C-alpha cells in the first residue's frame, strides 16, 4: 500500500499521468477505513488533429481509493469526467490477501468502455483506449516494484499491520465471549493423506465454520510441503494452488494429487497456461483409455512376462524406485511381431503406473518427497537387429505417449555398456525426448560404469545386479529370442490392436472454425432419451441439438474434406447442408451450451418427435462486449494464447428407451446402458431445461 500511494500526486513512470488533486478524504475514528477521492489529469497519446477537434489538451478522471485495514483490502474505482456524455469508461482494481497464505497479495483488474459518439472518430478512440489500457497493464507490475525498491533503499522493509485501539479490542473481546462456541470437528487421517487443505476438510463435513489457521492439515503447511512436495518457492506454490483450484472448479472427474499436478508444472517451467493444457489433455487421455484401472484390470500376456527383459529392482541412493531394463538382451522385433505395438505400449503404461505407486510408497518410507524413479538400461548385446524399422517406430510412439502423460517422472537414466551401434539409435530417438529429460541421461561405454563417477555414485554396492558384476540377484527376465511360432500375421495384430484400444466407449473429433462436428441420431419412438457425455480437450465449443424430419445427406468422403475431415486428433463430420435454413429445414430443440476447455459435460434430451436428431459441437468465437464492438481485455489476451482455430472433443452418445431412463443422469443404471459406468465415475451438478437436463 505504501508503494502504491507513492504514485501520487504524479508518477514519472507514467508519462500520461500529469497531476492529481484530492477532491475528498474520509478516515474512520479507529483509522481502519480510509477513503480518498482524487481528480487525475491525463495527457492522452492521441493525434493532434483529434485533440484539436475535441477542443481539449488533457482529459480528467475521478479515482476513488477505499482502504479497509481491518479486512486488509484496497478497492480502486475510476471513471472519466471528460466527455462523460460521449464516452463511458469504468475501471475497477482490487488488492486482497490470498485466502490460503496471508503473506501473498492478490490483484484483480477489470475495465469497460462504451463509446456512444465521438465526432465520427469512434473507431480511433476505441483503438487509443485499448492501446493505453494494454500499456498500463504491462507497466503495472514494473511501477509497483519500482516503488517497493525505493522503500527498501530508504530502509523500510516491514510495515506493521493495523491493530484496533484498546477500546475496540475490549469491545471485540466481550463480543467474542458472548459468541456461541462451535462444536469440535473431527478431521480424519485419510484427509491428510489425500492432501486436502483445512478449508476443504471442513467443507466436506458440511460445517459452515471457517478453517482454523495454522493446523497441521493446512495445505500450505510447511511440514506438508517438505514431506510431500519438496522445496517450492512462493511463486511455485502459488502456481500449484491456482492450478489445483482451477481443476476443482472445472474438472468433474478424478482430481490428481498435488505431486502429479506439480510434475506438469515443472515440465512447463511453472507456466500455468501451458501446464494446464497438457494436464487436461492427459486427464482426458487417462479417462478415454481407462489408465487409472490398468494395474487392476489388465494382465500382461505371457510372452511379455517371459521375454520382456525389464523389472523393478530396489531403489537408488536417493530413495527413487529403480527400474532395470536389459534392452540389449531383448528381442524387440520378436515382441512387436508376436504382440503388436498396442500391447507393448499398454505394458509400458502399466510400468509407469507402477512407478507412480512406488514413488508414493517410498515417500512414506523415507519421509521425504520422491516423485520420480531411476532407470538403468543395459545395452550389452545391442546390435543392428534392434534398429528394425517397426521396432524403432514402436519405441518412438511409446516415448511420445510417456513424455506427454508422465512428465518429470524420470529422475535419472543410466545407460550402461553402450556399443558402437548406440549413436545410430540415439540419433533416431533423441529428437523425440524433451530437453529437460535429456539432461538426466548418463551414458557409459564399455566398463566405464565401474570407475569413478560410475554406478556406485548412484546405487548402493549391495544392490548392484549380478549381471553388472554386483552381488545382488536380479529377478529381471533375461529376455532372449521370441519363438517364431508365437509370431502373428499383420491382420491378426491389427484385430488385436483394435480389441485392446477400443475398450473405450468414447470417440474423438476435431472442431474447426467454420467446420463443426455433427453426429446423427435417428429416433423411431417418441419419448426416447438421447444421452451424451463429452470432454472438451482443447479450445471452447458450443454444443447444440437440432431436429429434422428428413435425413441429411451422408457426408462425402472426398479428398478435399468438404464434409468429412480426418485428423490425428479425431474426425470431423458435417451433416447439415449449407442450403438448409434453421426454422424451415431443421429446428433447435435445446438452448446452445457454451463449454470451456477442460470441462466434462453430461446431459440428456427426451425426444418429443420421431425423426433425425443432430448433435453439434461448434467452434466458440470470442464474444464482444454487450454494448460495443470492443472486445473485452480478457478475451483479447485469451485469443492471443490460441495457437489455431481448432478444438478437440471426446464424446459418447447413447439412446435409451424411456422405460429404462429414471430421470437423472446420476441414476442411469439400466442394464441396457453402457452409460451407467460413466455417471458413477463423474460428479455432476445439473441445470434443468424444459425437456432435458445438462450437467457439468
TrEMBL record:
Residues 502-655 form the GOLD domain. It comes from the Eukaryota. Keywords: Cytoplasm, Golgi apparatus, Immunity, Innate immunity, Phosphoprotein, Signal transduction inhibitor. Residues 300-476 form the CRAL-TRIO domain. Pfam families: CRAL_TRIO (PF00650), CRAL_TRIO_N (PF03765), PRELI (PF04707). One of its GO terms (cellular component) is cytosol. Residues 1-156 form the PRELI/MSF1 domain. One of its GO terms (molecular function) is RIG-I binding. Residues 199-218 are annotated as: Disordered. It is found in: Cytoplasm; Golgi apparatus. One of its GO terms (biological process) is negative regulation of RIG-I signaling pathway. InterPro entries: CRAL-TRIO_dom, CRAL-TRIO_dom_sf, CRAL/TRIO_N_dom, CRAL/TRIO_N_dom_sf, GOLD_dom, GOLD_dom_sf, PRELI/MSF1_dom, SEC14/CRAL-TRIO_domain. May play a role in innate immunity by inhibiting the antiviral RIG-I signaling pathway. In this pathway, functions as a negative regulator of RIGI, the cytoplasmic sensor of viral nucleic acids. Prevents the interaction of RIGI with MAVS/IPS1, an important step in signal propagation. May also regulate the SLC18A3 and SLC5A7 cholinergic transporters. PANTHER family: SEC14 RELATED PROTEIN (PTHR23324), SEC14-LIKE PROTEIN 1 (PTHR23324:SF51). Interacts with RIGI (via tandem CARD domain); the interaction is direct. Interacts (via GOLD domain) with SLC18A3; the interaction is direct. Interacts with SLC5A7 (via GOLD domain); the interaction is direct. This is SEC14-like protein 1. It comes from Bucorvus abyssinicus (Northern ground-hornbill). The gene is Sec14l1_0.
